[in-house]
């Protein structure tokens, strides 16, 4: 065990707390993408002082990017004394809106009872701060380390990551030979390693009809009734099938260890917003439904889509005047990093040293920026590991435990030691 390294992390506890609180004080709320530039510059300035080369990359043209709300990302790199692999810590700097129900100011960085409170404390400014402290402690105790360390603070994870990791990955920031191992300190709990996520298919289904006066519906064709037939078929034929599909992926919570589909929204008939309070007088000629289908490593996306389009095609054959369109909104394949991948083994060693037990290996029910690292960067040695309790993310009075941050910073520091120096001692 590298006592000096662990003590160097512990000695920085106050700094870790202060850094977390400082990061929370930037109200990087997304949407719209507030305060990205000052937050990225703050992080960059700190790393520059440590000797990192820093770059600020704005994702011009990304969704939401404007001069008022620029999508600014920071990437910092420190090259060691000799060649070797590069370990990259990636954190998103954006947070979701505070919402109601807070008993503390969500952007004040309040510290009390061994916790730091604030929007983003858990998801994921506490994880970002822990990774910075882990890196600082490692660099101080092993100044001659080989290889390179990178830390990035990126935009827009909460809205899909297009102005953040996806943009950088397209530019080669998440590919070999620049980067070899990626750790994303998302709040998955300090003793768990998140290997990936289920797949996603979002689509919009539209049924068509024909407009007519509401008093004579027989003169038109009701698109909402057609959608009713779609929903009924989903209930009878699709949901029971999905519910029976279990995966070997260790998804948490356990309910997500099977295929799921959410009906996100349904819109039919004349829009109500231009005549608030007044009902639509017509037979609706269009009805749109958005589905969010989450699928498993054992399923392929063609089959996933075929289950839905099969039902729609059957309705088209059997139901009078039924017509539809379907549009893909998003698709992400399921991902699971192997347990014997170098980054998994290195962080597992850290967890065993700090907690004296084997880590839990989990899969996230939803996606996060790892999807872009894999899909666009073609880099598969990537995990999510960080402090913070997943259930607290996005909720009022979000907090991160100080002891949890210190322990997970120790795990990250040991992981770095294993990946760069090949040793825990
Ligand atoms: Zn997050």
UniProtKB/TrEMBL annotation:
Residues covered by the Peptidase M20 dimerisation domain: 196-318
Does the entry feature the keyword Hydrolase, yes or no?
Answer: yes
From which domain of life does this come? Bacteria
Pfam families from the xrefs? M20_dimer, Peptidase_M20
Q: Which cofactor does it need?
A: Zn(2+); Co(2+)
SUPFAM superfamilies xref list: Bacterial exopeptidase dimerisation domain (SSF55031), Zn-dependent exopeptidases (SSF53187)
Q: Which InterPro entries match?
A: ArgE/DapE, Bact_exopeptidase_dim_dom, Peptidase_M20, Peptidase_M20_dimer, Peptidase_M20A
What GO MF terms are annotated?
hydrolase activity; metal ion binding
Q: Keywords in alphabetical order, please.
A: Cobalt, Hydrolase, Metal-binding, Zinc
Query: What is the residue range of the signal peptide feature?
Result: none
Could you say which protein family the record assigns here? Belongs to the peptidase M20A family.
Q: What is the name of this protein?
A: Succinyl-diaminopimelate desuccinylase
Organism the protein comes from? Mesorhizobium plurifarium
């Amino acid at each position: 065990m590298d006592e000096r390294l662990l003590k160097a992390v512990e000695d920085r506890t106050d700094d870790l707390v202060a850094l977390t609180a400082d990061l929370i004080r930037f109200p990087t709320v997304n949407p719209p993408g507030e305060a990205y530039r000052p937050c990225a510059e703050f992080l960059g300035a700190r790393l520059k002082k440590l000797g990192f080369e820093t770059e600020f990359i704005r994702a011009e043209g990304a969704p939401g990017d404007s001069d008022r709300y620029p999508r600014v990302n920071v990437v910092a790199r420190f090259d060691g004394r000799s060649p070797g692999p590069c370990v990259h810590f990636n954190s998103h700097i954006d947070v979701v809106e505070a919402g109601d129900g807070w008993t503390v100011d969500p952007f004040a960085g309040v510290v009390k009872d061994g916790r730091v409170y604030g929007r983003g404390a858990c998801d994921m400014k506490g994880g970002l701060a822990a990774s910075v402290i882990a890196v600082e402690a490692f660099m101080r105790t092993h100044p001659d380390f080989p290889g390179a360390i990178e830390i990035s603070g990126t935009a827009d994870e909460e809205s899909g990551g297009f102005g953040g990791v996806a943009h950088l990955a397209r530019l080669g920031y998440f590919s070999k030979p620049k980067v070899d191992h990626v750790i994303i300190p998302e709040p998955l709990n300090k003793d768990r390693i998140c290997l990936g996520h289920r797949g996603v298919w979002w689509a919009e289904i539209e049924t068509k009809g024909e407009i007519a006066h509401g008093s004579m519906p027989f003169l038109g064709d009701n698109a909402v009734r057609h959608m009713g037939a779609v929903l009924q078929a989903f209930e009878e034929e699709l949901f029971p099938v999905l519910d029976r599909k279990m995966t070997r992926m260790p998804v948490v919570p356990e309910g997500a260890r099977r295929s799921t589909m959410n009906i996100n929204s349904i819109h039919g008939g004349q829009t109500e917003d231009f005549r608030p309070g007044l009902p639509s007088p017509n037979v609706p000629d269009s009805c749109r439904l958005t589905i969010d289908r989450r699928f498993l490593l054992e399923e392929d996306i063609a089959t996933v889509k075929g289950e839905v389009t099969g039902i729609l095609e059957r309705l088209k054959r059997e139901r009078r005047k039924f017509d539809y369109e379907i549009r893909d909104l998003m698709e992400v394949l399921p991902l699971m990093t192997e347990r014997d991948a170098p980054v998994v083994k290195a962080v597992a060693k850290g967890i065993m040293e700090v907690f004296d037990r084997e880590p839990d290996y989990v899969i996230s029910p939803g996606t996060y920026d790892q999807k872009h690292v894999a899909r666009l960067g073609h880099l598969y040695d990537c995990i999510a590991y960080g402090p913070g309790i997943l259930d607290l993310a996005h909720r009022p009075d979000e907090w991160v435990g100080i002891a949890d941050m210190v322990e997970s910073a120790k795990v990250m520091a040991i992981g770095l030691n294993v990946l760069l120096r090949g040793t825990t001692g």
